[in-house]
Design a protein that fits this description.
Mean pLDDT: 88
Helix content: 25-40%
Order of helices and strands: HHEEEHEEHEHHHEHEHEEHHEE
Structural class: alpha/beta
Largest sheet: 6 strands, mixed
Strand order of the largest sheet: 6-7-8-3-9-10
Radius of gyration: 19 Å
Shape: globular
Oligomer: single chain
Length: 298
C-alpha cells in the first residue's frame, strides 16, 4: 500500500519506467496535496451528455465517496478520472501533469481500478488474478535501460493482499467459480497488490455482507492513512458517512454537492436528488450522520 509520500514517490518511479473512522494521519501539507484535479470536465456520447462541467480535486490522505441515484454519472466520472475514458471537454491533471500525457505503464504504477463488474471467464485461479496487480512492477527499467528490481517481493505482496481481504483461503479456487462477494474480495486484493497511491473503487461493497463491507472500507481508510487517495462509488450512504473524509453527490451528470458527510448528507438535499424520503439523525455511537431511507407512505 501507499506510504507517506506515496503519490510523489510513485510519480518519480513511473517516469523512470516510461482505524476505520479516524482521519488519515498526515500533516497538513501532505493532506493538502492535490493528486488528481478535474476542471470543467464534460463527457458526451452521441446526443447524451453524461458528465456536465464537473470540477473536482482528489487529495492525498483522503477517502472520497461518490454517491447519487442510478444514472447520475458516478461510474462514468470514475472512468474519466482513472484515464480509461477521455473527456469530451475539460482538463484533467495527475500530479501536475495532464492525465492524457501518461503512458499505460506509467498510469498503472500510479492508479489502480476496481471496476463495478470484473468480468473474467478464463480459468485463472484467485491467486493468479491477484498476481495480475503486480504486472506493472515486473521488468521495470530505469536510466540506461537497466532493469529495476521491484520495491517489494511480488509473492509477499500477493500473500499480504489476499490476507488483508480475507481471500487467502480462495487462492487455488478458479475465479469464475467464486461467489460474487468472493470475486469482489479477490479483485480488491488485485487492486491492493498493484500498490498505487491512487485507488478507484466502483461499488466495491455492492455484493458483500455487512462484515466484508466494513472490511473493504477499513482497507480504503488504511490506504488514505498511509498517504494514498481513494475514490469510491457507493450506494450505501451510511458507509460513506462512516468512512469518507468528503462526499461528492452527483445528479444528472453534475456535482450537486461536495463537502464533509455532515455537509452533504442532509435530508432536504437527499430527498430532492434521490426523489425518495429520508430521515437523517446523529449516529448514536459515532460523530457522523445516520441516514435512514423511509417508505413513500411513512
Amino acid at each position: 500500500m501507499a506510504n507517506g509520500n506515496a503519490a510523489e514517490t510513485a510519480a518519480t518511479e513511473s517516469r523512470s519506467a516510461g482505524g476505520a473512522l479516524e482521519p488519515a494521519s498526515l500533516d497538513a501539507p501532505a493532506r493538502s496535496l492535490v493528486v488528481l484535479s478535474a476542471r470543467h470536465v464534460s463527457y458526451r456520447v452521441g446526443d447524451k451528455l453524461l458528465l456536465d462541467d464537473v470540477s473536482l480535486d482528489l487529495r492525498a490522505g483522503s477517502v472520497h465517496a461518490l454517491i447519487g441515484p442510478n444514472g447520475a454519472g458516478k461510474s462514468t466520472l470514475l472512468k474519466v478520472l482513472a484515464g480509461d475514458v477521455r473527456p469530451t471537454a475539460g482538463e484533467l491533471t495527475l500530479l501536475g501533469r495532464p492525465l492524457r500525457s501518461y503512458g499505460k505503464r506509467e498510469l498503472a504504477l500510479l492508479r489502480a481500478v476496481m471496476p463495478q463488474d470484473a468480468v473474467l471467464s478464463l480459468p485463472f485461479t484467485a491467486e493468479e488474478v491477484v498476481a495480475m496487480g503486480r504486472y506493472p512492477h515486473r521488468g521495470r527499467r530505469g536510466a540506461g535501460g537497466r532493469q529495476q528490481p521491484a520495491a517489494r517481493n511480488h509473492e509477499t505482496v500477493i500473500r499480504e493482499s489476499m490476507q488483508a481481504t480475507e481471500s487467502a483461503h480462495l487462492r487455488e479456487r478458479l475465479y469464475p467459480t467464486l461467489s460474487g462477494g468472493e470475486q469482489a474480495r479477490v479483485t480488491l486484493a488485485r487492486v491492493l497488490a498493484q500498490e498505487t497511491p491512487l485507488v478507484f473503487l466502483d461499488e466495491p461493497t455492492a455484493s458483500l455482507d455487512p462484515r466484508h463491507q466494513h472490511l473493504v472500507m477499513r482497507l480504503a481508510r488504511d490506504v488514505a492513512r498511509a498517504g494514498g487517495t481513494v475514490l469510491a462509488v457507493l450506494h450505501d450512504m451510511n458507509l460513506a458517512s462512516l468512512y469518507a473524509d468528503d462526499v461528492v453527490l452527483m445528479s444528472g451528470g453534475r456535482v450537486r454537492a461536495h463537502g464533509s458527510p455532515a455537509e452533504v448528507l442532509r435530508r432536504e438535499l437527499l430527498e430532492e436528488v434521490f426523489q425518495a424520503r429520508f430521515h437523517v439523525a446523529q449516529h448514536p455511537l459515532l460523530p457522523r450522520p445516520l441516514v435512514l431511507s423511509l417508505p413513500h407512505d411513512a
